[in-house]
Amino acid sequence: LYGRNTTSVSATLTGPGGVSLSGSRSDYVVGFGDLYPAATLKWNQDVHNFMVYATAAVPVGVYDPTRLATMGLGHWATDAGAGYTYLNEQVGFEWSAVVGLTYNSINPYTQYRSGIDAHLDWAISPYLSEKLHIGAVGYAYNQLTGDSGASPALGGFRSRVAGVGPQIGFFFPVADRDGYLNLRGYSEFNARNRLEGWTTYVTFSVAAAERKPGEPRPARVASLPR
Prior knowledge:
- By secondary structure, the protein is mostly beta strands.
- 0% of the residues lie in helices and 61% in strands.
- The chain contains no helices and 13 strands.
- It has strands at residues 2-14, 20-32, 38-45, 48-57, 77-88, 93-104, 112-113, 117-129, 132-143, 148-149, 160-174, 177-192, 198-206.
- Strands 3-4-5-6-8-9-11-12-13 form a 9-stranded antiparallel sheet, with no helix packed on it. A two-stranded antiparallel sheet has the order 1-2. A two-stranded antiparallel ribbon has the order 7-10.
């Protein structure tokens, strides 16, 4: 991925007698992010569609441990999980869910290791027509084990956050194949030891093979976790 990340933080320290000291800091970075090679296996039975996946984070993105904003993790990570999609084209309805676990290696720059986390991504997509659907998306992230490494004063430092928001998707022909464009956004909440705000994603994809006349459209098993 390529993009811009802008991050800001503000804090107030209140001392004896109610005397307070405030400060803020912001930073931004523009560049490439990490690589995420992935392998998936998908199969279906009538309206039921299944997926298992495995992916890794290769730390080649813009990263500086002394800066507030970054485009990379700074360390290796692996993630694996499974997904399910219910797709009924006759009634024009689809819903998906993907659950997975992430294992983080130690950050060689900071000697800090984040704990194992669990995450759930879901999407609900009623179809307004054969080429247009709207709906809702959401996710939940929860750290299962505490952090460890060079900052014992932080303790376990477990984090969590959830998000929910709208989505809209369009199907259209690209030569002799199916093209798909999706826009979705998340309003994040219930954060602990983790940033929260608004995030938006634009996704464009083209089918690898031509769909024959009368052949059902493949289910879009919920996208891999962010």
